[in-house]
Amino acid sequence: MPDSPTRRTLRLGVCGPVGTGKSSLIAMLCRELADRLSLGVITNDIYTDEDARFLRSAGVLDPARIRAVETGACPHTAIRDDITANLMAVEDLEADFAPLDLVLVESGGDNLTATFSPALVDTQIFLIDVAGGGDVARKGGPGITRADLLVVNKTDLGPYVGVDPAQMVSDAGSVRDGRPVIALSAHDPASIAELVAWVIGRLAAHRDGSLHPADPGPMAPHSHGPSHEGHGDHDHDHALAADHVH
Ligand SMILES: Nc1nc2c(ncn2[C@@H]2O[C@H](COP(=O)(O)OP(=O)(O)O)[C@@H](O)[C@H]2O)c(=O)[nH]1
Ligand SMILES: [Mg+2]
């Protein structure tokens, strides 16, 4: 049953390991969408505002609509455990440029375990890239398996790094239980159109009340050996650990 229609800004998170192309993807979306949607961007860097400066200098959006959160600590924390600084930045941006259609939130580059809290973003993209190795898609983790969209980026580099992007997409698809995967390259207009169509689809679903934020969860699916009784070596919330087998 859809909720009632909303004009509230759609908050879209972009996360994934350092260098996979998060800032570039956000610049791409601004370039493609800024003339038809009212946009804002929040970046997260650990010690600098480098990403915000890169995006401002890309000239794809009014620089005032791009704000940096300096996390000062593990970037994972600021998008999941204590989202206060990010939430305040998003809310300030939405108030200053109301009505915004879409706010893009870039996570600080982290490893394969980081995903956004659904209290911060309505929907999220996880990025990996072919240059990181063809086996990354099979390594799993909550972003790869359960983000709303998985992007396998930089497919143009496949021949240079000995990776078959189609195989990587197929490996990723097999761990995602039907959730979408897009093979993306900044040099492939058809792939950019596919990404833009996915974002427009999420915005439409958000507006008609049929988008329900899902938590990819901090835990990758895993199982314990038969002798492992009290989870002595780690604590976690089983409600968040889908596919958790004991
Ligand atoms: N060849 C290629 N390089 C890309 C592509 N997308 C991003 N890059 C490059 O990858 C590097 C890291 O990108 P960036 O967006 O800063 O990654 P981030 O750390 O995830 O934000 C930069 O040098 C980009 O120019 C792509 O589709 N193809
Ligand atoms: Mg970046």
Key descriptive features of the protein:
disordered C terminus; binds guanosine-5'-diphosphate; GTPase activity; seven-stranded parallel beta sheet; nickel insertion; 9 helices; Rossmann fold; UreG; alpha/beta; P-loop_NTPase; binds magnesium ion; GTP binding
Structural summary, described in words:
By secondary structure, the chain is an alpha/beta fold. The chain has one domain: Rossmann fold, CATH 3.40.50.300. The chain is 33% helix and 15% strand. The chain has 9 helices and 7 strands. Strands 3-2-4-1-5-6-7 form a 7-stranded parallel sheet, sandwiched between helices. Helix 2 (50-57) links the parallel strand 2 (39-45) and strand 3. The longest helix is centred in the last third of the chain and has 19 residues, at 189-207. The relative contact order is 0.17. Mean pLDDT is 88; it is low at 229-246. Bound molecules: guanosine-5'-diphosphate (GDP) and magnesium ion (MG). Guanosine-5'-diphosphate is lined by residues 18-24, 109, 153-154, 156-157, 185-186. Belongs to the SIMIBI class G3E GTPase family. UreG subfamily. GO terms for molecular function: GTP binding; GTPase activity; nickel cation binding. Pfam families: cobW (PF02492).
Question: Short summary of the structure?
Answer:
The chain has 246 residues and is of the alpha/beta class.
CATH third-level topology:
Rossmann fold
In CATH, what is the class? Alpha Beta
CATH superfamily: P-loop containing nucleotide triphosphate hydrolases
- Cα-to-Cα separation, first versus last residue: 33 Å
Number of helices: 9
Give the bound compounds: guanosine-5'-diphosphate, magnesium ion
Q: Give the strand order of the largest sheet, numbering strands 1, 2, ... along the chain.
A: 3-2-4-1-5-6-7
Which consecutive residue ranges, at least 5 long each, have pLDDT under 50? 229-246
Derived structural class:
alpha/beta
| Residues in helices, as a percent range | 25-40%
